[in-house]
Write a structure and sequence with these properties.
Layout: E1 5-9, H1 21-32, H2 38-54, H3 64-81, H4 89-117, E2 122-126, H5 132-139, E3 147-150, H6 151-154, H7 160-170, E4 177-181, H8 184-194, E5 197-201, E6 219-221, H9 227-236
Parallel strand pairs: 1-2, 1-4, 2-3, 4-5, 5-6
Helix pairs in contact: 1-4, 2-3, 3-4, 7-8
């Protein structure tokens, strides 16, 4: 199963090792807001995502801590409107804890990216907020990507179109590209529909079952560090030529 290029999701894949930010923030909110209702938090999370996507709150120069502060502030605003009495000083506390988590994860991820990018061209695909290049530069990993496709700047929904564009940037047929992501619905399904091989980083999703219901992923991993070994095994397999 030969691979010539990689399409790699950013948020929830390489910055958290497969943990969705919704799940991480729920854990942090439970720590700092006693008695918070899970369903209400879910609505607050969805509200913050809609605001950040539609109101141009995030600027191209914003770093990741800025994103977290804006996102958590919107969530606090929503919960306050629902009757919660909140200490807004905790916005920065939670944001710093989350930013530190990303920093710790990316220190480990960086070595893996360096190794992978020496063998394969990597195109990063992400449903972000228009500032992904600033975030990549901040974290010191931008140099490992041949290109970046971000829905926040390309005015696309996160669907097959972003993967079609990623395949085009790699310049190889889809079947020679492997897509790696943490979300079954937003990474695995659309990239498979485009024709890519898929590797699902199945760790801790958000409002997903964690089960390959359609049996379409070519492989599942439980840690990003398993990716190089898996790709090496695939490359070692003999190519089957159809007559």
């Amino acid at each position: 199963m030969q691979t010539r290029g990689i399409l790699l999701n950013y948020e929830g894949t390489i910055d958290t090792n497969g943990q969705h930010w919704g799940a991480i923030l729920w854990h942090k909110f439970q720590k700092h807001i006693i008695g918070l209702d899970k369903s209400l938090f879910n609505r607050a999370y969805a509200y913050s995502e809609n605001v950040l996507a539609s109101d141009e709150v995030i600027k191209p120069t914003h770093v990741f801590l800025d994103v977290l502060v804006h996102k958590i502030t919107q969530q606090f605003d929503y919960l306050s409107e629902q009757g919660y009495s909140l200490d807004y000083a905790k916005v920065h506390t939670i944001a710093r804890e989350c930013n530190n988590l990303a920093l710790r994860t990316l220190r480990k991820t960086k070595n893996i990216l360096e190794s992978l990018s020496s063998t394969f061209p990597i195109v990063l695909v992400s449903n972000f907020y228009g500032n992904l290049n600033a975030v990549l530069s901040e974290f010191g990993i931008k140099q490992y990507f041949a290109d970046v496709v971000e829905s926040g700047t390309s005015n696309m929904n996160f669907n097959t179109e972003i993967y079609e564009k990623g395949v085009s940037r790699l310049g190889y047929p889809p079947e020679e590209c492997v897509a790696v992501g943490d979300s079954y619905n937003r990474d695995i399904l659309p990239s498979k529909a485009v024709g890519c091989k898929t590797i699902w980083l199945n760790v801790m999703g958000w409002e997903e079952w964690g089960i390959d219901e359609l049996e379409i992923s070519d492989a599942e991993i439980g840690d990003f560090s398993q990716l190089p070994g898996l790709l090496e095994n695939w490359q070692a397999q003999p190519t089957v030529v159809s007559l």
